[in-house]
Structures are given as C-alpha cells and as structure tokens.
Design goal:
It is built from 17 helices and 22 strands. It has 583 residues and is an alpha/beta fold. Strand 1, helix 1 and strand 2 form a beta-alpha-beta unit. The N terminus and C terminus are likely disordered.
Length: 583
C-alpha cells in the first residue's frame, strides 16, 4: 500500500498489538494483514506451547511477548501500559481477525493526523461463521474501540472495549474475523473461557437470569433477523444461546457449593469401603486394578486407597503435569507412563504391557469409586469358581449433590471386570467398549461416578469428547471404522440400543433437542430435580457440539473429494483433444 497517499503529511502508521492464545493457525494471516500498514507489530501470547515464535521468527517488524493470562483485563492492560511501542497510536487486534486494505489505509490516515481531538476510535467488526457473513443477529455492525493512545485507555470490568479518557471517534471501514478459522473445537474452548469470565462479572451484578438461553435465541434468530443468514445464522444463534446457558450455570456454580454436597454424599455411600475383604498380598493377587490418568491429582489418592483392598493398583498415566504420578506412588500404586493416542489404544497398551499378575483385571477411572457392597461382591464372585469371563458393573452418577437415578443415565452398564487375557477394547477413539471372549454376567452392586470437576472442566472435557466422537461418525460414514459391531460388545438387549446409538442416531434430525427430551422427559430426568435439568441441557450441548463438528468435517471431506474432480475437468477443458458437446 502507498502510505503517502493516505495523508498529505508524512504518514505515521500505528503500532499493532495482537492478542493471541493458542492461535498459531490464525497468527500468520493476521500478522500479514497488519504488516501492510504497520512496521511495529507486537504479539502478546498467553500460550507457551504453540508455534507462535516460529511463525514470527526472522521478521524484524514483529516482536513476541509471552505472558500467562490471569484475566482478560490484566492481560490487555499489560499490553497497553507495560510494552513500549514505536508509535503513539496503537491498533488492538485479535489473532482471528484480519485488516482489509481499506481499513489499513484509514488507520494510517487517522494516526497521522497531528491535530486530531479524539483520544481513540471505534471500528466495526464483521463476523464470518463458516465462511458466511453474519450481518444479522445483532452482530453487524459490532463496534469496539480499537485505535487508541495507550496512555489514555484502560480495560476494566471484562468489557470488550477499554475505558478512554477523552472523546472517541468512529472509523468508516471494518475489520473481519472468521470465528471458525481454527476449527469448531478451538472456538468452543474460547467460548468456554469467555463464559467463565462473563459469569464472574455478572455474579457481582445480580446473578443468573432464568431462561436466558431461550430468550437469547429468540431475540437473535427471530427479532434480530438471524434467520436471514440461513443455516450459518441458525447455528450461530443456537451456539450463542448455549453459551448464555453456560454463563448462567457457572454463575449458579459460584453461588452453590455443589462439590461439597457431592463429597458429603460420596462419603456416606462409601462408608466402610476398604475395611474388609483385604487380600493376602503374599499370595498371587486375585485382581489387578488399572487406573488410566491424566492430571488427576484431585482424585488419585482417594481412588488408589479405595481400590487397594481388591489387589495391586497400577496407574497408567499420560504424562500428567499436576503431580498425579508422585501422589499415586505415595498412595501405594505402581505408576507407568505412556504417551496417549486415544482411550482404546491407551487401555489396550496397559493390558498388554503393565506388570499384571492377577487372574482378573478391574479397570476404573480416577473419578470412580468401588462401594463396600461392590467390593464384597467382586471378591465373592471371583472366588466362586464360576465359568464367567467378564462382569458388567453399573455406575451411579453423583452430580450437583444428587445421586442421579433417571434420565437414561442409570443404570449405566460397563464391562469393567474381566479375566486377564480374555478381553480388550474395540478400536474406537472415545466411548469405547470391551470385547470379551466367553460368557459375561452382571454384578448387582453399584460403582460411584463422582463429577468433582467444575463446569468449565466438564465442558472442556466434553469438547474433547465431541471432537473424537465426530471423528468416529466420519469413520462410520466413510466405512473407515466406527468401532466393533454391537453384537460383539453385548450379548443381550443392550446390543440393540448400542446399534441404534451408533448406526441410526447420527442420521436423525434435531438430535440436540431429541437428546434433551429423551433425558428429561422420556427417561424421567425431571425426577432428579435441578441435577436432572442441568444434565439434560449439558448433554444437549454435547450432542450439538458433536453435530457441528461432524457437519464441518463432512463438508471439508466433500470439498477435498470434489477438488481433484474439478481439477481434472479443468484440465480436460484446456486439452486440445477434449471433446465438447454443444446443444
């Protein structure tokens, strides 16, 4: 761009502050759009584990400053006041944004004005969702203060724009941002982070609003015209509504000690666990316990102590960074670390490589516990000499201080106890099941599943699950996998349910709403009170995340399949020997 054309005087472009956090997939294009008008670009990066340094290496006009993000206000204010810039004006930019040429020219013109009476300028943002411009649903024009004099601006209260001392003008042109440029999963993680910040802010200003999600969708999709943006508008409004629900449930989480209630209930149900049935450790053990872990420091001591009366405990760790390994060793477990690929491969590796010596293997997650009744039943069944090779164990979920007994979440049968060498996991990345040779049976007593994590952690985990589950749907769609046939996983009525879940469910319309109705109404989730209500909505969110990622990946596959065909057609058209039929 010819900067001298931007203003009659010598042009003085603004410096640029790029806010980044795990945005290495977006950063290169963002920086290139900023370098068209500025010779001083600073990337304030909150992540030390991505490729930001490599992307910016060798460019003298770009600097990288790393700082862990403790809050959005502190991070942005650090960028405004603690970094030295080469120009008096500063343009604020996020890594998923681009600066079009028209805006670049206007930024240079404004920052070059020697007699400007404005302390800052607002800029409109145009949002793209899956390549489609969202011009309705109150998202365009969306104004925010972006061109500032740093010493006159300060962020406070978690707002999108800084508070400015002085008058604020408006620029004519707009910047662009593609919400899905890093993929659905990263966008959802960002919204999870943002909803936590928003919950903290609103918790101090009056708390949650009943029905916020529903009214947000109605307002944005109907009254503000989101329906005019087609499918992209619908999904954008729906996800905004779900994120509004995330804000409300996190506000309620701040106000109610759900974890304390869970702990009290778990302590009551586990009273007496680990005090009876202890084996003679001098003899070969009857049962080996395997616990797969990743950053489970808040669970590991308790689950190891809970399982030791059954036999030796082996912790298969995926290189935790929170001290899980040492805590497990101190609690009495053997710890082996192995790099995680997916859940099935990790557990199968453990079954083949851990120093297991017992006749039986019990697999248990770190957030699960063996009740006293189940402990006694396991030892009694395994000592009976029955010709059973595997046992299904029912899990009872503890959520929001409630033992959940409805909503299709109870009973929840999982084959977790089996003879060593007689079972392995199907080749599936997530929600994997055990394939067991020979006869299987059901135990009567329950295992506890304690949801101790925060709502943020719950959502972060289910975003990861949705990513893996959508991959499995793609494999099933393309014939590349999708797990074992249901008849190999179950030899009773559960196989029909499993077949429906894997073969018919992905083809049904309105899956998120259907999941909510199935859990809350059909399977009587409302009888579990507040816990049942929130579980129904959280599972509907999870179902919607799977659907969005599946659609996104399927569209990408379709484009890849069409690209070679389009290229061959173009080659044929250019070829002198190509035959062209005309009407």
């Amino acid at each position: 761009m010819n900067l001298s054309a931007a203003t009659a005087s010598t042009p003085h472009p603004p410096s640029v502050l790029v806010i980044a956090r795990k945005e290495d997939t977006n950063l290169r294009d963002c920086i290139e759009s900023c370098l068209q008008f500025s010779d001083d670009v600073v990337v304030l990066d909150a992540s030390a584990n991505d490729r930001t340094a490599q992307i910016t290496e060798g460019n003298a006009a770009v600097r990288v400053v790393r700082r862990a993000c403790d809050s959005s206000d502190k991070q942005l204010n650090y960028g405004l006041h603690e970094i030295t810039y080469g120009h008096p004006w500063l343009y604020l930019c996020y890594a998923n944004e681009r600066v079009p040429a028209a805006l670049a020219q206007e930024l240079v013109a404004r920052s070059s004005e020697a007699d400007s009476s404005d302390a800052a300028y607002r800029v409109r943002g145009r949002t793209y969702f899956g390549g489609r411009s969202i011009q309705r649903a109150a998202d365009f024009p969306q104004w925010s203060i972006r061109l500032v004099q740093p010493h006159l601006a300060n962020f406070q209260g978690g707002g999108a724009s800084p508070v400015v001392r002085g008058t604020v003008g408006d620029l004519r042109e707009h910047f662009e941002r593609e919400l899905l440029s890093s993929g659905f999963a990263q966008w959802l993680r960002t919204r999870n982070d943002q909803s936590s910040t928003e919950a903290q802010r609103r918790a101090n200003r009056g708390g949650a609003v009943r029905g916020r999600a529903m009214w947000t969708f109605i307002r944005d999709y109907i009254f503000r015209g989101g329906f005019l943006n087609g499918g992209a508008g619908f999904h954008y409004c729906a996800m905004n509504a779900f994120c509004g629900y995330w804000v409300d449930i996190k506000i309620k989480e701040l106000a109610h000690p759900w974890n304390d209630q869970n702990e009290q209930l778990a302590a009551q149900l586990l009273s007496g666990a680990g005090k009876s049935g202890t084996q003679n450790m001098q003899a070969p053990p009857l049962v080996d316990v395997m616990i797969p872990t990743l950053n489970e420091a808040h669970h590991i001591k308790e689950v190891v102590a809970n399982c030791l009366p059954l036999g030796p405990v082996h912790v298969l760790d995926s290189h935790s960074t929170d001290g899980t390994q040492e805590l497990a060793r101190r609690a009495g477990a053997t710890v082996v670390e192995h790099t995680f690929v997916n859940y099935a491969q990790q557990k199968n590796w453990g079954l083949e490589n851990l120093p297991l010596t017992g006749q039986w293997v019990l697999i248990i997650d770190a957030d699960e516990r063996v009740t006293p009744q189940l402990q006694k039943e396991i030892l009694a069944k395994l000592s009976s000499g029955a010709t059973i090779n595997g046992y299904y164990i029912n899990r009872m979920l503890l959520f929001m201080g409630k033992a959940v007994r409805h909503g299709g979440l109870y009973p929840s049968w999982n084959l977790r106890l089996f003879r060593r060498g007689k079972a392995s996991y199907e080749n599936r990345a997530v929600h994997e099941h055990v394939i067991c040779e020979g006869q299987t049976a059901f135990l009567e007593s329950d295992m506890l599943h304690i949801r101790r994590e925060s709502i943020w952690q719950f959502l972060d985990k289910h975003i990861r699950y949705a990513e893996l589950e959508s991959d499995e749907w793609i494999k099933a769609r393309t014939g590349a996998g999708g797990g074992a046939p249901s008849q190999r996983l179950f030899r009773h009525a559960l196989r029909y349910r499993q077949w429906l879940r894997r073969n018919m469910w992905p083809r049904l319309p309105f899956r998120p709403l259907s999941r909510w109705g199935y859990i809350y109404i059909v399977r009587l989730g409302f009888l579990d009170g507040v816990a049942g209500w929130h579980l129904a909505w959280l599972m509907a969110c999870y179902e919607y995340m799977i659907s969005l990622m599946y659609r996104h990946k399927l569209a990408a596959l379709t484009q890849q399949a069409q690209a070679p065909r389009a290229g061959s057609n173009a080659t044929a058209a250019k070829s002198p020997s190509a035959k062209v039929d005309t009407a």
